C-alpha cells in the first residue's frame, strides 16, 4: 500500500480526491490536513470532516493547518466552489472533530516517525508544506515524493497563474526548490480529467450515498465551470494527484525544470516550465502533461463502488 498524506482545501475536487484515496485498496491514507484556499480555513476543515463522515472514514486524523498564506493576503475561490467552499450537496454537521495537533506538526511527526515511505499529496495552496519544511528540515529526506496539484503552462486565476500556486507562491517556491522529488499535476493535465456527461452518468448509476454525494458535487462544479470559464465539462483537478499515486501509468510525464515566479507584474504565481531545456538547469519536477481518460475514470468509479457497505 502506498502511504499518503492529503493536504487540501475542500473544495469539490479535493473532496473527490479524498474519496478516491479512501476507497482504493492500494492507498493507506495516513492523514488529512487542511489549509485555507478555496474557502477560509474553518470552512475547508469543516468540509474535510463532512467528507470523512459521509464516507465512513473514522481512523484518519484530520488536522487543521494554516489560515493565511506566508506573505500575501488570503484569496478564496467562492465563484467556483461557493461560499462554503463545497456548495451543492447538503450534509449534516459532522460528529467528527479535528485532532488537536496543528497540521504542520502532524505532517512533521508522521514523516519523522516513518521509514521514508510517505508521499505528500498537496492539492491546495502549499502553505502547510512550506512551513513544515522550514520548521523541521529533517523531514526533507523522509518525504518519498510530493505529488501536488498546481501550476501548469497557463493560468486559471490570472492568465499566467493557477490558483493553488498563485494563492501562496512564496510557499510554492520553497517547495519547488526543496530538492524533494516532485510530480506536478498542472492544468495541462487536469484539464483533461473532465467529468463528461457520460462519466457523470456512470457515477449517478452507482447506488450508494458516497457516489450520490459525488454526483451532487459534480452538478454544482459543472455549473460554475460553465458560468465562469464557459467549459462544457468540469475538470476534477485534485483527483489527478491521488490517481497518480495509485497508478502512475495513467499519466504521461516529462522531467523538466520548473521555477515559481514570485516577482512578476503579470506573472506572479506562474510555474515557469522549461519545456525545451533552454535554461540548462537540472530537471526538478516530473511534469504530467497527458492522461488516459478511460483508465482515470475507471479508477474513480471502482473506488466509489467500494462504498457499497454504506
Ligand atoms: C485548484 O484550485 C482549486 O479551486 C481546486 O480545488 C484545485 O485544487 C485548481 O486550480
Ligand atoms: Ca484544491
TrEMBL record:
GO molecular function, one term: hydrolase activity
Pfam families: IU_nuc_hydro
Alphabetical keyword list: Glycosidase, Hydrolase
InterPro entries: I/U_nuclsd_hydro_CS, Inosine/uridine_hydrolase_dom, IUNH, Ribo_hydro-like
Annotated Inosine/uridine-preferring nucleoside hydrolase domain residues: 4-298
PROSITE patterns given in the database record: IUNH
The protein, known as: Nucleoside hydrolase
Protein's organism: Marinicrinis lubricantis
Source taxonomy: Bacteria, Bacillati, Bacillota, Bacilli, Bacillales
Amino acid at each position: 500500500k502506498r502511504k499518503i498524506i492529503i493536504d487540501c482545501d475542500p473544495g469539490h475536487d479535493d473532496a473527490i480526491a479524498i474519496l478516491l484515496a479512501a476507497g482504493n485498496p492500494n492507498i493507506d491514507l495516513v492523514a488529512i490536513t487542511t489549509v485555507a484556499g478555496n474557502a477560509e480555513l474553518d470552512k475547508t476543515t469543516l468540509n474535510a470532516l463532512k467528507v470523512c463522515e459521509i464516507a465512513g472514514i473514522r481512523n484518519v486524523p484530520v488536522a487543521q493547518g494554516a489560515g493565511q498564506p506566508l506573505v500575501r493576503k488570503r484569496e478564496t475561490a467562492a465563484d467556483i466552489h461557493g461560499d462554503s467552499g463545497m456548495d451543492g450537496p447538503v450534509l449534516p454537521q459532522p460528529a467528527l472533530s479535528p485532532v488537536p495537533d496543528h497540521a504542520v506538526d502532524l505532517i512533521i511527526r508522521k514523516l519523522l516517525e516513518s521509514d521514508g515511505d510517505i508521499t505528500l499529496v498537496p492539492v491546495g495552496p502549499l502553505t502547510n508544506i512550506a512551513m513544515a519544511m522550514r520548521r523541521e528540515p529533517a523531514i526533507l529526506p523522509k518525504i518519498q515524493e510530493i505529488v501536488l496539484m498546481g501550476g501548469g503552462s497557463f493560468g486559471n486565476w490570472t492568465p499566467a497563474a493557477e490558483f493553488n500556486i498563485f494563492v501562496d507562491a512564496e510557499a510554492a517556491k520553497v517547495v519547488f526548490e526543496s530538492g524533494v522529488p516532485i510530480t506536478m499535476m498542472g492544468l495541462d493535465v487536469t484539464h483533461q480529467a473532465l467529468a463528461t456527461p457520460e462519466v457523470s452518468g456512470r457515477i449517478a448509476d452507482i447506488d450508494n450515498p458516497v457516489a450520490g454525494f459525488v454526483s451532487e458535487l459534480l452538478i454544482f462544479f459543472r455549473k460554475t465551470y460553465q458560468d465562469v470559464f464557459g467549459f462544457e465539462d468540469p475538470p476534477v483537478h485534485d483527483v489527478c494527484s491521488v490517481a497518480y499515486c495509485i497508478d502512475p501509468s495513467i499519466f504521461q510525464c516529462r522531467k523538466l525544470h520548473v521555477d515559481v515566479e514570485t516577482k512578476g507584474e503579470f506573472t506572479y504565481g506562474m510555474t515557469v516550465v522549461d519545456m525545451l531545456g533552454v535554461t540548462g538547469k537540472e530537471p526538478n519536477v516530473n511534469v504530467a502533461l497527458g492522461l488516459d481518460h478511460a483508465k482515470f475514470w475507471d479508477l474513480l468509479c471502482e473506488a466509489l463502488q467500494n462504498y457499497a457497505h454504506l
